[in-house]
Amino acid sequence: MKTLEIIDLHVTVEGKEILKGVNLVVNTGEIHAIMGPNGTGKSTLSQTIMGHPAYEITQGKIILDGQDLAEMSVDERARAGLFLAMQYPAEIQGITNFEFMRSAVNARRADDDQVNLMDFIKELDEKREFLSMSNEMANRYLNEGFSGGEKKRNEILQMMMIHPNIAILDEIDSGLDIDALKVVSKGVNSMRSDDFATLMITHYQRLLDYIVPDFVHVMMGGKVVKTGGPELAKRLEGEGYRALRDELGLDIALTDEDADLMV
């Protein structure tokens, strides 16, 4: 079992404090969802876990199996089993999907245990078909010319090929129609095991209809203010964030959209 532990995490971006004391524990075998209004720090949390240099930890720690992530580079975090499916995947010209994924898979293996080419092609074809992706996508440059839905499927394909222990999915449902959402959810659900955990960041209950979480965490004002099961997301869908804010007695400003729009 691997454990990701976030302890009293404070993070600033360009001198502004965004995270103000996040505490969270994620173990393999678990599915976690983080919800919350815009600007509360959900994506900041994901970027900080993976080591984006623009995000400065001013207090607290992120521990992966006893090791402080502050001591690890981005590539070391990936080799240790972390994976981030980004909200806005970058387009990279000159590197094909095939080359990128094979390099990523081999980066987590010893030099004398690199993936066999034919085995890799077989697995890639199986998982590509599972996600209803075309054969030619393997030879396309990474995300170049991809639609929003294709980019999100490609992130899930990468996750399925790399086999991380803890995957952070930053609004993987954003911009997807219902058919694409079902496919992406099918890919995430196929990874469920005692050796895998997911931390999903989302605004919408609809994702959690297809990927049912073990834990739902609500972030407001830069910290986790409430944790529950799937029923917590259902409650938010019906009541919005304002009711929860008032129940907890939090002095946090919410726009009408953030307070009420949960569908």
UniProtKB/TrEMBL annotation:
GO molecular function: ATP binding; ATP hydrolysis activity
SUPFAM superfamilies noted in UniProt: P-loop containing nucleoside triphosphate hydrolases
Lipoprotein as UniProt keyword: no
Pfam families: ABC_tran (PF00005)
All copies of domain ABC transporter, residue ranges: 4-246
Record keywords: ATP-binding, Nucleotide-binding
Alphabetical list of InterPro entries matching this protein: AAA+_ATPase, ABC_transporter-like_ATP-bd, ABC_transporter-like_CS, FeS-cluster_ATPase_SufC, P-loop_NTPase
CDD domains: ABC_FeS_Assembly (cd03217)
Family membership noted in the UniProt record: Belongs to the ABC transporter superfamily. Ycf16 family.
Protein name: Fe-S cluster assembly ABC-type transport system, ATPase component
Organism from which the protein derives: Fructobacillus ficulneus
Source organism phylogeny: Bacteria, Bacillati, Bacillota, Bacilli, Lactobacillales
